[in-house]
Fold each of these.
Amino acid sequence: MKRIVLLVILFATSTAQAEIFKVKIDGVIDPITSEFITEAVEQAEAQEAEFLLITLSTPGGLGVSMQEIIQMILNSEVPVVCFVEPQGARAASAGFFILLSADLAVMAPGTNTGAAHPVFPLGGEDETMLEKVTNDALANLRAIVSQRERNYEMAEKGVVESKSYTAQEALEGGLIDLIVEDEEELLKALDGKEITLFSGELQRLETEGQEVVLLEMTFRQRVLSTIADPNVAVLLGVLGLLGLYLEFTNPGLMAPGIIGGICFILALLGFSLLPINYIGVLLILLAIGLFIAELMVSGFGLFGVGGIVAMTLGLLVLVDAPNPEVRIQWGTALAVAGSFAIIIVFLLRLAIKSIRAKVITGTGSLEGSIGQARSQVSREGGKVFVSGEWWQAVSESSIEAGAQVRVVGSNDLVLTVEPYFATE
């Protein structure tokens, strides 16, 4: 019996095959991307995968998220292979660092990598800060490429001089390990290949007959990834504010309030995933103040123009990220600022007009109305018939019953009237 159990165990062990896990990164590197790759590495380790394949196509992204991904790759217990694909794709900026941190860096023909020099929104950096950020990036790069035995001089130029390299240039310069056409060719090239992990451990890859398991983002991660786009978050925020305004000014509509509340909360959630520049927030608040001032004061349009400029600049610097792909774009900023200005001025004008409009309910609405005295009206009182209703009334001068009267005021439910003489 023991022999049978032992044979079963040995058979199961001999036929068990580790899987190859794969994740696709197509877009900016943000906190959701970092969370996704972190979970992928942990799952690959838990299931003892042969290796984790990360396909890259990115213009870059947030430095904090990039550092989290690199940390997971360097400390991974399973090999990590980064593959820049398909043809025409790029691994720029943060993607350049992630590619070089992998146990194996691979590119497809027609792809490029590099252009990793730090930049600031609207060119607002000072030399000291730029030097500090660049030196920090270079130190991080040295720590990675020296252990990976890659060409530091070329990697340094990718940061300091924003150099970008084709796949062939990167291979000949010692930045990457392979150039392959597609995933099928990659798996063939890796079969039997020995690699050294960042920890120094030597591993031999076996890919023949292995199943490639694609790991996908959860529904929650897909939603968060969408609203983490600052352009989407801004549009959600504007829609949310307009919906809430309509609900507050027209209680009972319900739909604008519900939709507006959801949009506004989603916008806040999206911005919570991004680094926010509070100067941008102050500029947006200033813009709203200028729009209101344009209505209250005769500014001849200057306050409105100033509001559009302030909101546009505020939106452009709102997301404190060096990569333009992670910031709000010029077109979105101008469209939102212009549309928001038109809408808010229109809505506020309606609100102010309604406040200044003549009262149309209660006794105040009867002021100026013409009626008839139904009894003698004096300072002691009397009765009048106005707008189809009987009213108590007083008058400074005595008015005989049957005479026409005009309402000049009211106090509680008592009208103040005066004689009215029609003119032809």
Amino acid sequence: MNHIISIPVLLLVLLSSCVSSKKYDSLALAKDQLDREYKALLGVRDEKAELEAARRNLQQDLVVCKEEMTRQQELIQGLESARDDLNLRLNDLIAQNQALLTASSEEKQQLVEEILAKEAEINRKTADQESLAKALAKREADAKELAADLAEKEKRIAELNGLLDEREKALSTLKTGLLDALRGYSSADLSVREENGRVYVSMSQNLLFPSGSDIVDPKGVQALRQLAGVLKVQKDVEILVEGHTDTDGSADLNWDLSVKRASSVVKILTKEGVPPEMVSAAGRAFYLPLASNDTAEGKARNRRVEIILAPQLEKILQMIGSGK
């Protein structure tokens, strides 16, 4: 059997209907939740790219710091060698001073001034050496802190990637299970596709309902039972059931029919064991067609129920919100 994978609409617009205000508010909240989840995923991907760029910049800074550390160490070695030379010269000057103790007062004064100048130079260079050593130690500490921060961010990226991989794997497994459970149905009556992190099961009116009715016929009940057998064992999955119509009849009637059909499907799924807290129903009337309503074939495609399955994103959202 061939399964048609059609192009989905990522976020379905909830429009005003003749259902109750409470029902409409519930549908609006469901739509907002889907919007936030999708934006959260985009934010995860953007943040991953930013963290990768930050890691590259930190690695470049670390290389610069190491080069600067090498230069400072060479400078310190040069200063130490100069200090040793100055100490030797100072010792020579002290010896000369002892030899010139009997010399004239003017010569003695000149020698004293030279000794004091050399001592001042030694003290200054020693202070410079200590200052450079402190600066080098601070740079080493900063480099270690940057490396630790980079490691923590890389760990966070790995955890987020792991959660996203688990989510993709769960979707693929769910799609495979649905295809196996629903094998044997015509592609015109039933199709399964995966788009934008969700699995869409599209079921035609011909499979589920008599024309103009919201009561599921026996063959539709059987298909929904097979579908429920897969869904009721799923964890952390949100299920949105959407009713769709063609443009025949008034907007009011089509709103009512699409909502009632979605509700009928939800009732069967929950009766067959799908947890009620996982499922919600929505009516779209004829406002989200798959094909043109100008032809009989297009209208037939538009008269459908779509069951949209999306993994819950609580773990990913909690990680983003906590900044871990």
